[in-house]
Write a structure and sequence with these properties.
With 348 residues, the chain is an all-alpha fold. Helices cover 68% and strands 1% of the residues. The chain is built from 14 helices and two strands; from the N terminus they run H-E-E-H-H-H-H-H-H-H-H-H-H-H-H-H. The chain is globular. Its EC number is 1.3.3.6. Keywords: FAD, Fatty acid metabolism, Flavoprotein, Lipid metabolism, Oxidoreductase, Peroxisome.
Length: 348
């Protein structure tokens, strides 16, 4: 359990740095203006450009859903029992790898989205990125952690089949039911449906687990030992671990979301959730590679990302404010950066 405790520490650090970085970049984009769409018109805020929304708002959605997953992990550890030790290790390995990877991606994009201002020491994002880089290899290389996740899922699959028992734990209960069916044509309403989103991520995980176990079995049949067979199947192992983690993050967020009463907050959470899933589809080749979605449906998801970013734009400041980050934890870039630059120039 000591190992999982250190993984949780990495999760906590990842959560804080990612939220601070996104908050700074979003607040800067709500004050920094550049160019205009008409010759005599006012310059536009950065966050009013669709391309800038596409850069930052998916990171905001991921930060929110991954924060929910981090809180879930903390609650599980606090209430741990000997029976939960295995689950804690698997979840913490998957989430530590995924969240630390995402943290580096987020901080780099936020740094670039702030231009040269983002590199200044006083604005913190560049410092966060430099200091956090080592977290990707603390407590083990992230790629190795994700392979541990796939090996654990493989073991769960073999145990359930050998004992002829239903799957239980790790959110794998969906494997006990019929295989989800994805519509041939996906409308915007379907893409935003939580049941469709869960079905899609479960379908990918189920398919990859079957492919992974089949490939390992084929290597075993060729005379390889189990460890060698698992190593040779690393490509499917990586895809499976990612599918498990993304389904887990969505499932955790849905549990939190359902406890929120109907209203504007629930609507915003729905936008964040849908943007997270659409970006998962857009960024992962696995949905298309393994036939979970057609090219047309992947294109529809990509288009939906733009629409969701536009709808989320008016709520961006409220969302980053809801993080509750004290002003002292932010930077001049998140407030009156023009005045801060003027003071710096004066000191020179």
């Amino acid at each position: 359990m000591w190992y999982s405790r250190y993984l949780l520490k990495d999760l906590k650090t990842s959560k804080i740095n990612k939220l601070v970085g996104v908050a700074i970049a979003v607040r800067y984009a709500l004050s920094r203006r550049a160019f205009s769409v008409t010759p005599d018109g006012p310059e536009m805020l950065l966050l009013d450009y669709p391309s800038h929304q596409r850069r930052l708002l998916p990171l905001l959605a991921k930060a929110c859903l991954m924060s929910s997953a981090g809180n879930f992990m903390k609650r599980m550890y606090v209430k741990r029992t000997p029976e939960l030790n295995k689950s804690i290790h698997i979840y913490s390995s998957a989430l530590k790898a995924t969240l630390t990877w995402q943290n580096m991606t987020t901080l780099q994009e936020c740094r670039e989205a702030c231009g040269g201002q983002g590199l200044k020491t006083e604005n913190r994002i560049g410092i966060f990125k430099a200091e956090f880089d080592v977290q990707s290899t603390f407590e083990g290389d992230n790629n190795v952690l994700m392979q541990q996740v796939s090996k654990a899922l493989y073991a769960e699959f073999l145990t359930a089949k050998r004992k002829n028992q239903p799957f239980k734990g790790l959110g794998l209960e969906h494997l006990n039911g019929p295989c989800p069916v994805i519509p041939d044509y996906l409308t915007s309403g379907t893409l935003r449906s939580s049941s469709f989103q869960m079905d899609l991520l479960c379908l990918r995980e189920r398919d990859l687990l079957k492919r992974f176990t089949t490939e390992v079995s084929n290597y075993l049949a060729q005379g390889e030992n189990r460890e060698k067979a698992l190593m040779l199947s690393y490509q499917l192992a990586e895809d499976l671990a990612r599918a498990f983690t993304e389904r887990t993050i969505l499932q955790i967020f849905l549990e939190d979301e359902k406890n929120i009463p109907t209203g504007s907050l629930k609507d915003i959470l729905g936008l964040l959730r849908s943007l997270y899933v659409m970006v998962c589809i857009d960024e992962s080749a696995s949905f298309l590679r393994y036939g979970c979605l057609s090219r047309e449906n992947v294109a529809a998801a990509r288009k939906e990302v733009m629409t969701l970013c536009s709808e989320l734009r008016p709520h961006a400041l409220a969302i980053v404010s809801s993080f509750g980050i004290p002003d002292a934890f932010l930077s001049p870039l998140a407030f009156d950066w023009i005045e801060a630059n003027a003071r710096s120039s004066g000191n020179e």
